[in-house]
Queue: 2 jobs
Job 1
Amino acid sequence: MRSHYCGDLRKEHIGQDITLSGWVHRRRDHGGVIFLDVRDREGITQVVFDPDREASFALADSVRNEYVIELKGLVRARPEGTENSEMPTGAIEVLGKELVILNKSDTPPFQLDDHQQVGEDVRLRNRFIDLRRPEIQRKLRFRSKITHYIRNYLEENGFLDIETPILTRATPEGARDYLVPSRTHEGHFFALPQSPQLFKQLLMVSGFDRYYQIAKCFRDEDLRADRQPEFTQIDIETSFMDEEGIMGITEQMIRGLFLEQLNVDLGDFPRMPYSEAMQRYGSDKPDLRNPMELVDVADLVAGVDFKVFAAPATDPKGRVAALKVPGGAELTRKLIDDYTKFVSIYGAKGLAWIKVNALENGAEGLQSPIVKFLGEDVALQIMQRVGAQNGDLVFFGADKAKVVNEALGALRIKVGEDLNLLTQEWAPLWVVDFPMFEEDNNGGLTALHHPFTAPSCSPDELIEAPEGKLSRAYDMVLNGTELGGGSVRIHDQVMQRAVFKVLGISDEEAEEKFGFLLNALRYGAPPHGGLAFGLDRLVMLMTGSASIREVIAFPKTQSAACLLTDAPGEVSAAQLRELNIKLRKTP
Amino acid sequence: MRSHYCGDLRKEHIGQDITLSGWVHRRRDHGGVIFLDVRDREGITQVVFDPDREASFALADSVRNEYVIELKGLVRARPEGTENSEMPTGAIEVLGKELVILNKSDTPPFQLDDHQQVGEDVRLRNRFIDLRRPEIQRKLRFRSKITHYIRNYLEENGFLDIETPILTRATPEGARDYLVPSRTHEGHFFALPQSPQLFKQLLMVSGFDRYYQIAKCFRDEDLRADRQPEFTQIDIETSFMDEEGIMGITEQMIRGLFLEQLNVDLGDFPRMPYSEAMQRYGSDKPDLRNPMELVDVADLVAGVDFKVFAAPATDPKGRVAALKVPGGAELTRKLIDDYTKFVSIYGAKGLAWIKVNALENGAEGLQSPIVKFLGEDVALQIMQRVGAQNGDLVFFGADKAKVVNEALGALRIKVGEDLNLLTQEWAPLWVVDFPMFEEDNNGGLTALHHPFTAPSCSPDELIEAPEGKLSRAYDMVLNGTELGGGSVRIHDQVMQRAVFKVLGISDEEAEEKFGFLLNALRYGAPPHGGLAFGLDRLVMLMTGSASIREVIAFPKTQSAACLLTDAPGEVSAAQLRELNIKLRKTP
């Protein structure tokens, strides 16, 4: 029903008889002639109908926006002066000869060009119309290209695409599972996988050597702009390869992807230990496009008569850090108040600051509510350490290290964006040398990644002093977003039991939850490791999308009514009976 | 940890120092020397350890089957007379120099070579070991190659890979849905999709033009050898293309796949109307490798004094058909009795037969319990019509057409296999011109495919006399298996409502179930259609697998205990409370 896509017509087609099929994007009546902008996946072409072809002119006159038409016509140059250099097809137009209306359209709930004037709710409720917007089409096509590139790269490198089950048992990622009642095993439920983690490890034990899957994963969490309860993971696992090998092969994949699709060379990814990332950026996924860094000043303020600084400066779990904002002296009092509110979200009790007006005047040249508490000497020592210059502003965080890192880490990002401080477009890195464990809320230890991550020490060393032990995990970070994360896994059952022991998981519980993995480790598990990338995030980053709803075709939304195709439906009493389930009365 | 895969070593590597990693497939102690067969994904290599390298010899002596090792060694020619031409690596061996045991293995529950001696239950329970078998590895790798080929083909032809949701509303395929209780919408459930049918139609309405997805689908049905509750579909949909276009592009895909992966040219696929397939083969997915055909003889027996034949011969819904079995006169009475039992599964009340011993003697040369009822003339006329020759046997089916088709259709397959009558290795075809509707059990009509299939007539014609109207559906059949099926869809809301009317679906019900599709049809839906292939079946056919369990990594089985990783688990009372669900007491 077409010889060309609308968007593909160029000067070289002039003189050709062609057939197009698509949607009426716009219809104009101008000087006794009908102009139809006809749209398909590839773009828009202008078609002209003259009154001397009566039948098709009358039809063209009758069409409305979003009608579906098929037309035959002749490609010709646009009359001089009417070329449109902003349209890829702007040098030509089609003289319409025959027209068929394939389907009519009621007046759509919104015109594609007016999508910004209607609320997102309306657009989501009419998703099939919103998906017609060239911008969304472009993003979903880009997503398809990304997955295709990645599949080709992985296939060329010997990775096998192997499907793992969706209906499975609860997996150990720790988020809430979606449960699926089983009809044949009464009172039992399947769980939807939070990741194929255990299955891919079993595939390594089975000797498949290199596995990948672009896999749907599920977490029953509340929705956010960058999170959907079902999301897609580029899931990779290899055997007989250490962290260098795995990081190398996946770094090449992402570099190749950016080079091919965006013509961007990301260069070699720097590596940064977790501890350095926290120290310098207050984050384990630092955005290195942002030049600001957290600078420790605890030693300088430990002795001052200012409890707010001195107390955390002498607390082993405390931190006092400074964040220099280049040119920040221009920030208004109002903005500083806003930032103070902002850091309070992260638990900071205040936000001390010093403006550097004229360093040549010593402490006189500093403007600040706290210099009088710190003392002039200390204030100047701090200015020197952070390398402050006239016109800068220095923020302070003083609290438990966790609070300081989170508050100043977030403030750094926010100020960097507000003041346009970013120095480059792309800044990738690997964060490595993660701690194996972190403290949980009950004073126990919990796995920072997951309990199958290999520690960098022996089982005995691990059990003896688990705090501070590092793991063989690695995260790929791009522009402050964690693109992917992974680790070398435990392939030794002694080590696996040691980790369970530290985590306070009893033998019985381990057997119950992970028995099939422990069992597999007994029968010749090879050294193995892998990585999982969040595909949705990758596409968002590469397409510059602020919301995940722009990069998946049928998103879920907070309100069930919002997207009919995805709203959960009611089930009948008969269905519940068959599942042997009763709904409780709402209290 | 390796320079080569074990299975890749050949004569040209002789003289090279190499590193291998893999599993000890077998260990032999022979003439004071240790032989290890080392296995990885690519195959097996023989490694020899001499006693003069003491350390590695001692280690090699200590390894057992399924230990994971890394070794360095020298590739050399096998001593003359010890080459093994049945192994791809049989011309060489590796002289082991250094050996590291990467992981030990307990004695496995079964040895890979002995898998046939243990029950399938044991193998499924230890799936990670069963998956090590070269045969299963080969099949799963082949599956990966198939999907890769298909993705490349579709991408080259402009199809976009677009993901559709797994957590969605009930879809209209008619099988039982898996339900997922929603935590945020109390008392409501998601359904897992039986296919992405409605989503892909919405994508066409959105203008994506060509869509594909290798999609997980779910049906809560009981397990069978060729059926899993979650299965994988190669899902395709296009716009502005009629059935010729869609069949053409997908036929090319399957032909290309067979050519590239199996070096088989399937040739042009013949087309056969549904009615002809039922008439000649009693099946809508005829196996054309089998030369036998059903031949109607109702007109010959309508007048005989033998009710068993005469009644269905004169019943408009009846059928009397003959199935000639070449060389079947040799079938024993016992075998014929078995076939009689076999057809009774399909509702046949008996299985009449005539053996052709000596046609030159007329009816005298026929051996049969029924010739006396038919009369000699009629018997001979039938023999002539079916082209019977000496040594043949002719079976008869006489009943409702449905019973005759199913019984003789199945018998045809069975006898063809039993007597090795198949004439070729591959026999593809398209079955076309399906009826739009079939009778349901209550005397109403139900859609033969699904209610979005376009009829070949106008809405008015459809409503006036729906019985006997054809649809624009098509099935691709290979060797008696339905590989894929699809149709041109309804893109016109008037037609869609006409079909719902015939199916007895009220406006209200249509709105409730398919409102979002009906709504989309109002706003410029393009002509579109598509197809879905069963990937699991395709892989089974191409790898010659009898069970789906051989072509998926982690199958589910009837017994929950059978495959621990897939068994549904118990959930806690707290989880149920959160979902506001109560389990009923078992009655």
Job 2
Amino acid sequence: MSEKIKLGILGGGGDSLIGVLHRVASSMFDKYEIVGGVFNPVWEENINFAQKLGLSENRIYIDFETFIEEELKLPESERIEVVSVLTPNFLHFPMAKKLIENGFHVICEKPLTTTLEEATILESALKKSNTIFAVTYTYTGYPMVRQMRQMIQLGVIGEVHKVDIQYYQGWINPILLDKELRKTIWRLDPKKAGISSCVGDIGTHAFNMAEYLTGLEVKFVLADLNTRYKDNQLDVDGTILIRFSEYVKGVIRSSQIATGEENGLEVKIYGTKGGFNWKQENPNYLYYLTDDKPMEVLKPGHAYNGEVSLDGTKLPPGHPEGIFDSMGNIYYGVAKAIRNESYDSGEYPTMNDGVRGMKFIEKCVESHKLGNVWLDL
Amino acid sequence: MSEKIKLGILGGGGDSLIGVLHRVASSMFDKYEIVGGVFNPVWEENINFAQKLGLSENRIYIDFETFIEEELKLPESERIEVVSVLTPNFLHFPMAKKLIENGFHVICEKPLTTTLEEATILESALKKSNTIFAVTYTYTGYPMVRQMRQMIQLGVIGEVHKVDIQYYQGWINPILLDKELRKTIWRLDPKKAGISSCVGDIGTHAFNMAEYLTGLEVKFVLADLNTRYKDNQLDVDGTILIRFSEYVKGVIRSSQIATGEENGLEVKIYGTKGGFNWKQENPNYLYYLTDDKPMEVLKPGHAYNGEVSLDGTKLPPGHPEGIFDSMGNIYYGVAKAIRNESYDSGEYPTMNDGVRGMKFIEKCVESHKLGNVWLDL
Amino acid sequence: MSEKIKLGILGGGGDSLIGVLHRVASSMFDKYEIVGGVFNPVWEENINFAQKLGLSENRIYIDFETFIEEELKLPESERIEVVSVLTPNFLHFPMAKKLIENGFHVICEKPLTTTLEEATILESALKKSNTIFAVTYTYTGYPMVRQMRQMIQLGVIGEVHKVDIQYYQGWINPILLDKELRKTIWRLDPKKAGISSCVGDIGTHAFNMAEYLTGLEVKFVLADLNTRYKDNQLDVDGTILIRFSEYVKGVIRSSQIATGEENGLEVKIYGTKGGFNWKQENPNYLYYLTDDKPMEVLKPGHAYNGEVSLDGTKLPPGHPEGIFDSMGNIYYGVAKAIRNESYDSGEYPTMNDGVRGMKFIEKCVESHKLGNVWLDL
Amino acid sequence: MSEKIKLGILGGGGDSLIGVLHRVASSMFDKYEIVGGVFNPVWEENINFAQKLGLSENRIYIDFETFIEEELKLPESERIEVVSVLTPNFLHFPMAKKLIENGFHVICEKPLTTTLEEATILESALKKSNTIFAVTYTYTGYPMVRQMRQMIQLGVIGEVHKVDIQYYQGWINPILLDKELRKTIWRLDPKKAGISSCVGDIGTHAFNMAEYLTGLEVKFVLADLNTRYKDNQLDVDGTILIRFSEYVKGVIRSSQIATGEENGLEVKIYGTKGGFNWKQENPNYLYYLTDDKPMEVLKPGHAYNGEVSLDGTKLPPGHPEGIFDSMGNIYYGVAKAIRNESYDSGEYPTMNDGVRGMKFIEKCVESHKLGNVWLDL
């Protein structure tokens, strides 16, 4: 009998890119087998997609409620153990809540919910349950991100005193230029996207990275957002001053109008003894700086890396990791948690990361509305 | 019923890295399901590994002969369609031959065989069959390699007049330094590794890349190999002058003693109208040069890329591809071939690539032994 | 008789690095000859240094007052035409003022003065005179900076809508860590360094770059500075939100505690049609981004560059420019101005750049003290 | 009286780029003053150019013979001490010879002469004299090249076992494409350019770099040159196998048809304990590789660099050096030699470097003509 963890999937059918990412990630360490789920609200598309994946029809359900109901009828040894929630954002909350309450582990796409309030409710629900809950802040899965985190934990760069995280994209620029076009995309529609476009979609990744890497909590934020046009309601750019403590500060810079930038998540962290530079688009190079020695370039797979980094590296040095590997490592972390084999808190992003993310978004928008003032987080 | 192609695997069990690479690659486009195979000659390890993968026991066979025998008994609709051959090099030939002769499609790890003679026999066998045969020259699967190939085909850089391919590794250096240690590894043992270490393992990749990208055949080689120590029999370094025609020349540079280099496959190709630079360790950047315009940096996923490149890119620009993606694209190419959906000859490396590779190795070793003279290929 | 411009130098003697920079820069285009000056307040050192430079003793003066007095006695054809002011910051104002008032052209090191008030007085003095006045914001002399400026002027990236300039150094970190040491350096002593360390020394370069490149004026600033320690009075780090207009914003990031960073002046500018990235430490690469075409990498010396860029490139492409070339180009710009051959306002930084810089520093410090509020500039 | 060395210049007038390079280089360390020379065979241009430089007319001579004659009449304390020979290649030999024989120090542009025979005569002449003789292999002046050399000398990378030097340019490509045009340039005319274009112009730089850096002598060469077209007589591309000893080999790759490449001199050197990568177009980054530690990136001006490297760095880290700095360092090395202050053999390229370079060119051409055979050097 298979030792693999039984995985169910909600959403992610058809041409969904996020669906591909999660399926491949789940396959990477031979830890999961996709058993069933609800890929699409339209039954025919749902069942066709399941067939494409080679799944047994009897584990494909007509809707989420049926999914829960029928799976619970199965003996535990056959039942889906963990569910990936890849549905539109507004469905994350109700689905995740019900899954938790029924004892399923959850891997939830970000943003965790659409409001901080929902996130807090979910957090409470999790506390009462005994389940594993992960939010897929994908970029924390890269081996060199994990290496950077561990080196900071070990004090290699001393006390962290400055954090600068960038997340620059340019994709919304050509859309925004066209007055008609910009009215039509969901990302800029407050009813669908919530209170923020740029901070909500990517600023939150940068924020998560800041806290993940340093192990510190951002205490205050002061946000300056930009909608670029009067008739556009949501931010497409935002610079956020952050403060960890009186003398430890930083900045989060996010944009969707950094014309020509692709997916420019970049990290610069400095401490009393050293610093780090890292760029997501070139994720296998970690630059370690000091006052007086030559810069070092760390790469995945070498014995000089720590365990969590090496755990996420499947091939010898020089075989580049990509974004799939990063998500694969997060799935691997969740698998270890489910099987009680976790040994490090950085193996996957938790409910707390999701809640902090929601809080960050709401406070940034509020800080901006109040005229760029400091708010506590 | 699943639309997926039924995949069998020979070898690649336990901690085999090549096993991980092939399994993940096969999962990437939802085109394959792993059905069975022989992962290990030791039955217990074989069956344990199969269980880890969640495979049904009745498709795990005690040995290759049984595999063939039993699979052939199954109705075609249930039978394994394609087999990945990941066994030690000397087994490639007998296994691939028998698979072809029994109508299985084959995905064979490189080197195709251990001698050119075997390769030629295999080639003949394939001609009589009706099967698809791929040799996994992995690096041709990168989107930007495919883009480069297509641009060369379209004449973007004019007539190719200079080719310089490097494949520098340093991993054998610390082993080679130790007189006792170097006697013990299979890679330097002529009985196990055949006539060449460096050219056979990586020079052949560089050679394949040269012919894949340019669409030209190397006509002559002059090789200068280096065993570094008198007591070491196999080359650990080799520079090979190549000639496509009287005035179109190039060089292949390969090394396993380029201390500190990881997996430095690098391409430089120049033509009458432009040139290309590309590096495997940073595979998402293709540098396109001309006489008088600014250098352009092409990246995966953009609409300016051609179909074969875009086909192998699963996410938007800025989400880095890695080595798994590259192998995934080759598996995808084979899947399209099996389903009669191929539209381009560059979608996977063929038997011909394998045979040319074997010829290249033998001629390089011979050229060197004869005192660095030109030999035709 | 020499056609060269007669150059006098104040300060910059002995081992002064800034002295070397100015002397070499002045030699680069065969436009200047160093005739005399006051290199050092100590006569013996002054005269010895002059001898080292091979200068005639009778043009070396005991002090600034004598310099002015004696030079004015000479016939105009022999008199020093332009004076480089390389003395400590507090001397810039009185020297520059007197030089202007006596009809000498001036090349003044930055900061222009120690207060905005002095700068304004100097500005008035200049208006009444007929002299050329340059402030050496060195980095605007790089050919690719000039190329970027011209492309922005020509509308290549459309309307600028986001500006992000970084200037990160780490040199003060090891000094700051030592409680005793940090009390002893002039850079952190308000009596010697004025109201700011980081913003005053390097933030002002970033600010100048922002206005130089975009041709826009920063209208408002909101600064968050960091002294890092309670007992340290001057900022060693500062993030400054900037606003050009309601929907055109940016950020200036400066630090002297970005541990391990050397001289990390980096430019990111985005407009409606494209964007630019440029890094001072690698000054010969200008990255031009658009929504849908491959990134272009422009380099000095190519015919695709504009005149001001090409004017500052002395050798063919591939011969790297350095910081001396950059300063050399500014000297060249001043020479053209003196000889009435200027054709572009970007050939050297002007009095206005110096005054704006002083204003920027004062407003940033004030914004921070008031609790990080917006101030107009 | 000036302590500066009196410098004369032959050639390099008008718009000569090499003239600019030498003049600026001579000014960089305040060690030279240009006193006179012969800039141009046409008197009017000669004298006008001298005036532009602000030189005294009475030290500008009508021709080389007069230069020698008149300078020798001057008392030694006034006489030109060192002469830069920047004239067309065929004049290097007669001028250098006469200068040496008359006791002048010489800084000679490369190639030293037009034939090996001339070079050998020059070498003998030098042995009889007491003068300093430098050949301007400019690229050995870069601080990080010097640092690499010293680290190799100190055994940091162990015993060197592989050397790969590239010098790729593309400038001749557009000229070569045009059948008429290629007949007209001096570089491809055997009467003017001698026996080689590519190897003679740039291959020789790569060769010099190989010997300069490793301290080893190339013992054998096997060259494969390419004229690209039947009607073109001189090589525009050449790959040269080199051998330092039986098991220490390498390759020199040079091209003028590497379309789009600018001035791509690149070094890869590997030893038993480590390796180096360095690129001329980005000269301030030295990559130091080992088997098992992170790659280190060394940059100029840091205390971890050796004396010869630091001597050639005028400003703190992060202020990029360029090609002028490199030549400046060579002039500085010659100045130290003239003033008996040399402390390292790598401070400037010597007569021996020039003679070796001529030998290399002749042997490469011969090896090619004989059908790509090994010749000793």
